[in-house]
Specification:
mainly alpha
């Protein structure tokens, strides 16, 4: 159910209305499609190409697991009534930090193991992605803390009015 934001409503009501809109649902549906597509491609290569080098097969396995993780997240979000609920943003933030860390460590291992500069360049890009993921995670955690404090304050107000 999509709620239209009310102009005279409190800011919290407008935020909730925006979170229940169609756009986040479409975005998560696209995330699901992209994650499933990527996972199918990498799993297909992993399964059908047994003669690939071990590190390539390992990369395909890790990419498949990451894709399955994002697909699982998208399914979880789409089955919830509240799309973009702050807890979901915190979960996505932790997933992004974890997955970019795995990428960065893998790129660094390639750089060190093979001596190729491209591994170090990829690791540097991975560090930038980790930084961006940490910023988004921090923002989501602050928003969750603020909303939790607001909820507690409203609950206390309601309890005082009930007395």
């Amino acid at each position: 159910m999509t709620l239209a934001p009310q102009m005279d409503a409190a800011p919290e009501v407008r935020i909730v209305s925006a979170e229940l809109s169609t756009a986040p649902r479409v975005a998560h549906a696209l995330l699901l499609a992209a994650a499933l597509s990527g996972t199918v491609v990498t799993l297909s290569l992993f399964i059908t190409e047994p003669d690939l080098p071990l590190r390539t097969r390992a990369a395909f396995a890790v990419l498949s697991l990451i894709g399955m993780g994002w697909a699982g997240y998208a399914v979880w979000v789409l089955t919830q009534r509240r799309v973009l609920y702050v807890r979901q943003q915190v979960v996505a933030g932790w997933m992004a930090v974890s997955f970019t860390s795995v990428f960065t460590l893998g790129a660094l291992a390639i750089g060190v193991g093979s001596g190729l500069p491209v591994g170090f360049v990829a690791a540097a890009m991975g560090l930038a992605m980790i930084g961006a993921a940490l910023v988004l995670l921090s923002r989501a955690q602050r928003r969750l803390a603020a909303l939790t404090a607001k909820r507690r304050a409203l609950e206390m107000q309601m309890m005082e009015r009930a007395r």
